[in-house]
Amino acid sequence: MNGGTIKIKGGTDMAHEKSRNLKLNLTDILVTIVIALVFGLVFRLMGPVYDLVQPLGIHLDALLYGIWFIAAPFAALLIRKPGVAFLAETAAALAEMLFAGSGGVINLYYGLLQGAFSEAIFAAWRYKKFSIGVASLSAFAALIASIILDAGYAYLPLLAGWNLILYIVFRLIGSILLSGLFPYALVKGLEKTGVTQSLRPVTKEDYDVLK
């Protein structure tokens, strides 16, 4: 403030500030790695549960499949910077592999493609919109990535007719619930409790961007 007037930054300075704010810093990377480790362990623990449900029939296991997509949208919704969705999903897949997950190195292939597809959704909105709809689209994109890989690595090509349709529909439902709605609600809850203050200050705009 100078002589009773408020000095406003020029458009170039503000654009530069926004650009700088989108760059990953050390804290962002460390938090993303922690997220990946946590969900990598979750993935590892969910493996036996998935195998237990699989013999029950009617593809109930497909409802649980969506949990393997959660790292990307959760990290993106929390940190809201380019690259974190891809990094979190890939690192979580690597962590699952290191935790002796049943898929072995193939888990990493899934993590890479699912992370890339999920990242693409947030990039399409230029990392400016983090609504429940965008989170759900991110989960849907990861679902598409998993189906592409399943066509080559899993038993998906062996399914036919209503059996294949039921499997994909159940996986879609599980994906939206577990990796769309759930991470969105979790991040919004964390911000309201102030837990994320150590990562970044929460403003009214932060809440608005989640709407």
Give structural notes.
InterPro entries: ABC_thiamin-permease_prd. It holds the Pfam family ABC_cobalt. It comes from Sporolactobacillus inulinus CASD. Keywords: Membrane, Transmembrane, Transmembrane helix. Residues 1-20 have low confidence and may be disordered. Helix 2 (26-53) crosses helix 5 (84-98) and helix 6 (106-124) runs antiparallel to helix 7. The chain has helices at residues 11-21, 26-53, 61-64, 71-79, 84-98, 106-124, 132-153, 162-193, 204-209. It has a single domain (25-209), classed as Orthogonal Bundle (Arp2/3 complex 21 kDa subunit ARPC3). The chain is mainly α and 211 residues long.
Task: Briefly summarize what is shown.
By secondary structure, the chain is mainly alpha-helical. It contains nine helices and no strands. The model is unreliable at 1-20 (pLDDT under 50).
Q: What is this structure's SSE topology?
A:
Blueprint: H1 11-21, H2 26-53, H3 61-64, H4 71-79, H5 84-98, H6 106-124, H7 132-153, H8 162-193, H9 204-209
Helix pairs in contact: 2-4, 2-5, 4-5, 4-8, 5-6, 6-7, 7-8
Keywords: Membrane, Transmembrane, Transmembrane helix
Transmembrane segments: 24-46, 58-79, 130-152, 164-186
Protein name: Thiamine ABC transporter permease
